[in-house]
Design goal:
AhpD-like; elongated; 5 helices; 121 residues; mainly alpha; 0% strand
Length: 121
Amino acid sequence: MTSGHYPERSQLSAALGLGRDENSLFSPAVAELVAIGAAIAANCEPCLKYHYRQAQLLGVSKADMARAVEMGGKVKVSPHQSILRLADKLTGSCLSDPSAVSDACCGAANAEDAGTAPCCG
């Protein structure tokens, strides 16, 4: 570690005595599935593209990636609905009712029909 370069993760783990638990389910493939779900929850397109490709390289099935996407979406939607319910309570609006929202993405569908770019890109 004193040779003038940063140690690789495996070298650092070994030096710190943080060897992998052989019985762990947290494999590189599982790590990529977690990252895919986190990318969805964080709305991070570059993250999703990167971790999707890494998962592909590890042989992760599209079905498993879809499950990770679904779980990330559920994690994301829950606090979103919670904050909308609070906003409804505070303002008397009805934002938490999905049928009350006329257009997704700030009316992007209408913007496309009018020949302008959608607001959310």
